[in-house]
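For reproducibility, we list the full input for the zinc ion complex.
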Amino acid sequence: MYFKDIPGHTDLKAYVSKIVGENRVPHAILLVGGEGYGKLALALALAAYLQCTDRKDGDACGTCSNCKKTQQLIHPDIHFSFPVVTKGKLKRADTTSQHFLPEWRSFVLSKPYGDLNEWLQHIGATDKRANINVAECNQILKNLSLVTYEGGYKIQIVWYADLLGKEGNRILKLVEEPSDDTIIILISHNRNAILNTLRSRCQIISVPPVDDTALLEHINVQFDLSPEDKQELAFLSAGNIRKAYLLGHNTEMNYSEDLFEWLRTAYKGDPELIVTQVDAYAGQGRQELINFLEYGLHFLREYLLLLNSGDQNILKLTETEKEVALKMGKILDVNKTEGLKNLFETAIGYVHRNLSLKSLIMHITLEINAILRSEVDNLVT
Ligand SMILES: [Zn+2]
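The corresponding predicted structure, in tokenized form, follows.
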């Protein structure tokens, strides 16, 4: 991955290559930004640029021996840590990213804009809870204590650093007193989920959504669609490269219908139906629930826009989603929509905690019922 391969982020790329050129790269960087904005891709491009022995025009050359290794994700001085699960007969406490490196390479090379759920799908572990454990932190300490193989930088990339939890304290000293040739790049979609002590010692670099024009240029090259469909795809993706790929390849799950079904079941309040639905959702795993709730938030924001403006054309929703939004009109007014948004936001925080998934989904469903059935606002006004 080179800077030139990543759509948009012109200013950010220019800034990063400038500080590399001036030898001012911070030893600890925290890349934060939404899913699909290209954080991992930027970290990879930065690592490639740092290791390249023949940098050209603000990017890695692509032909030196370091570049050849970084491209295949086999550079011995670039280390990766990412959330994993148990593997084979290994105990979870002994399992680290090292045990998943071949899978990681094939995942990143095929889906550089993929998210945690896609990673878990890739390793057949969507029903498991992935994290970054103590053994991994010890591995990070070991990685960065080694002498460099190629004489350049030692780079440690930590994907989903928010899943470090309190274990992050173990690498604190490394971040506080790094050696000159060490660079640690933490990646997260949520800066508040990073341990305070760790976050305060990093230079935070915000990764914004990709701008529409750059995303459209990327879509023009990557997708074989009509010009109108490409425009539509760029608009709907809202700066999220991952979403562009999902929508462009038409693999986006039918979340809007599922959301509508969930609200309908919750509204009816039929215990048997609720239990069946709770079982079905719980079976899909924790990360899928987060994705679903995040999708729900996106949908509700667009739905509010529809309620407030009455204009369907400004919505970042597909035709199917717009049909669902219009159906929602019967059960959802502005206040109830706001209530659901707050509920979903709180629920996302809870998914990460060690609660039974079924109980949590049951709780959310009953809360939805209370919100949809509430007539309080009508009585007050
Ligand atoms: Zn090079």
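The longest strand covers residues 182-188. The beta strands are 28-32, 78-81, 154-159, 182-188, 203-206. Both points were considered when choosing residues for closer inspection.
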